[in-house]
Amino acid sequence: PAIFVITPTYARLVQKAELTRLSQTFLHVPQLHWIVVEDSPHKTPLVTDLLVKSGLTYTHLHMPTTKDHKLQEGDPSWLKPRGVEQRNEGLRWLREDRRAQPGGDNQQGVVYFADDDNTYSLQIFEEMRSTQRVSVWPVGLVGGMKYERPVVEGGKVVRFHTGWRPTRPFPIDMAGFAVSLKLVLANPDACFDREAPIGFLESSFLKGLVTMDELEPKADNCSKVLVWHTRTEKPKMKQEEAMRSQGLGSDPAVEV
Ligand code: UGA
Ligand code: MN
Q1: Architecture of the domain whose range is 3-245
Q2: Could you tell me the pTM of the whole model?
């Protein structure tokens, strides 16, 4: 089955670097359809051009986060959930597009939400390819821990190894699960709730789709870390600003 990867992305200094790294990982994955959703009122030339040159099968969408839900300069990053409207727009497109294909709602495929800054091993895509309903696996470097993971006993997920609010319905990072396309199509209202309290975004989507005992553990019964919640440092522009004030700033025509 094909893997539909939904990636929210927004303009910032490291965006092209992140998307370059991600696209070059995806080039190694057979049958991957990349759904890139820009957090922007329009499609930007930077992302448009990168996708055209990527060599990937892709769909380019955009959906701005409404102002009252967008992080403002100086807000701590955890204050508001990020990428919500974009993932929902990706789901909307997928449902509409797949319905129009032969086979309608009965289609093979897997849906995965891949943030633009994480690090993905190629093996995680082969693990998720056999997803029947919802598959799960560990995520490295997340939640203030070396890893978080579902705990598997007798082939079933019985609880979660997480340091924070283990009582959440699904204490799993966005990078730690995939959903079958059939389940997404069979539940047309399942989406991410932008009003979800901190840490409950993943649960807001999953709770309408599965129960804990239906989760399908991957990555050797959730014993292997194959995806990492890496975060890229914001580059400092101190010299850039000093140079600019002397009239020697970098050429704005050079895309970074
Ligand atoms: C953690 C989770 O790993 C995310 O999946 C979850 O969306 C987020 O928390 C949350 O609580 O909302 P974190 O690394 O803190 O992730 O978030 P980011 O990587 O900064 O953002 C997640 C995605 O949304 C990225 O693909 C990013 O490009 C996108 N994003 C971020 C936007 O589209 N717009 C923004 O204003 C910010
Ligand atoms: Mn991130």
Answers
A1: Alpha-Beta Complex (3.90)
A2: 0.96
